[in-house]
Amino acid sequence: MLETARHVRPLSLRARGSVASSPRKLFSPKAAAAAAKSGDGVRIAVLGASGYTGAEIVRILANHPQFQIKVMTADRKAGEQFSSVFPHLTSQDLPRLVAVKDADFSNVDAVFCCLPHGTTQEIIKGLPRHLKIVDLSADFRLRDINEYAEWYGHSHRAPELQEEAVYGLTELHRDDVRNARLVANPGCYPTSIQLPLVPLVKAKLIKLTNIIIDAKSGVSGAGRGAKEANLYTEIAEGIHAYGITSHRHVPEIEQGLTDAAESKVTISFTPHLMCMKRGMQSTMYVELASGVTTNDLYEHLKSTYEGEEFVKLLHGSSAPHTSHVAGSNYCVMNVYEDRIPGRAIIISVIDNLVKGASGQAVQNLNLMMGLPENMGLQYQPLFP
Ligand SMILES: NC(=O)C1=CN([C@@H]2O[C@H](COP(=O)(O)OP(=O)(O)OC[C@H]3O[C@@H](n4cnc5c(N)ncnc54)[C@H](OP(=O)(O)O)[C@@H]3O)[C@@H](O)[C@H]2O)C=CC1
Ligand SMILES: CC(=O)N[C@@H](CCC(=O)OP(=O)(O)O)C(=O)O
């Protein structure tokens, strides 16, 4: 069993606040905060409500005292009742699913956009400017639109919105998110990877070379649209790698690490599809900087996330388990000494649909509306 030598040399370094340094247009949260304080609360539209992340937003908002869903959209399922698409979610008084082109945003304050990549930028471009938007797709995550074109296979169709967007890895970009109108919610793999690695890179505790990441996702990460490769017959009782050396989350992760390092970081990243409904584990192999111990990494992460409600470090040699975060907004991590001298292993787990998508989106919109960040998110994981 792996054992970490703890209690060696606590570090005082902390990595709070924004790691992004590019100038952003600020948006006053006053009007939004006023709406939140009015009797109506914040009026919400969920675009793509008939998909997995849209449904997860609806599930979370059932316990949110300030966010009320007024508009819900779908594509193929437009015209249907939400309760006929998701019969398990009936506790709220919800509007019928409509096509985006038929949605009325005049009585809406904020939007969760849970649509496919590419389509999203076209749709957000057409939305009224009074709306605050949290976009769960990848459309506004990459600052460099040339890099976007390279990885997503087409040129960006809303570069002016890309300029405005703020990357919403909440714990690391809180101040930017608070003042944003449009937030690009991070991808699930980038969330599970950047939460541990960005503070370590920023504090120069690990080398920028030889960062190797092996990650595994539940099948809901691929969305609800039927694909042959995601059929039960092809997924059950197996595991397989995909996107080897070419997954589109590589530039997103490298962007965050490069910002933190202020120097280009290149990673090895291999995602795998696991036979489970939800959950994600990232196992990261890193090289310690000169004079740094595994315990230094642990202590630095511990002090970075001290007081954070949703990021937890385990004690001793305990291993994070996807069941310890299922259905919750937590990211749980731990650090281990490798058998190879000078190397460490870091493991993090999240629920891809919650901290990896809809939970973090609600966390971000809470901040954008001047509400407590944890509002509606204080539920515990489902275990076993
Ligand atoms: N699943 C996950 O774990 C994560 C997903 N994301 C991202 O979030 C976004 C949503 O993902 P997810 O919920 O999994 O996807 P789903 O495939 O489950 O849902 C997609 C939704 O978008 C609607 N839709 C599809 N095409 C169009 C279109 N052309 N115009 C308007 N609406 C359309 C669908 O409607 P209908 O059902 O009627 O066809 C459905 O409501 C994606 O960008 C995804 O990459 C981000 C992090 C994690
Ligand atoms: C299992 C699976 O297919 N996962 C998706 C990632 C889902 C996600 O986080 O991210 P995006 O918002 O960037 O799509 C994938 O690998 O493309």
Automatic annotation (TrEMBL):
Its Enzyme Commission number? 1.2.1.38
Q: Could you give a GO molecular-function term held by this entry?
A: NADP+ binding
Q: Per its UniProt entry, what is the enzyme's top EC class, as one word?
A: oxidoreductase
In this protein, the active site sits at 188
Cross-referenced CDD domains, in alphabetical order? AGPR_1_C (cd23934), AGPR_1_N (cd17895)
Span-the-membrane segments of this chain are none
What does it catalyze? N-acetyl-L-glutamate 5-semialdehyde + phosphate + NADP(+) = N-acetyl-L-glutamyl 5-phosphate + NADPH + H(+)
Identify the keywords attached in UniProt to this record, alphabetized: Amino-acid biosynthesis, Arginine biosynthesis, NADP, Oxidoreductase
Q: Which residues form the Semialdehyde dehydrogenase NAD-binding domain?
A: 43-180
Entry's PANTHER family?
A: N-ACETYL-GAMMA-GLUTAMYL-PHOSPHATE REDUCTASE, CHLOROPLASTIC-RELATED, N-ACETYL-GAMMA-GLUTAMYL-PHOSPHATE REDUCTASE, CHLOROPLASTIC-RELATED-RELATED
Which family does the similarity line name?
A: Belongs to the NAGSA dehydrogenase family. Type 1 subfamily.
- Could you tell me what this protein is called? Probable N-acetyl-gamma-glutamyl-phosphate reductase, chloroplastic
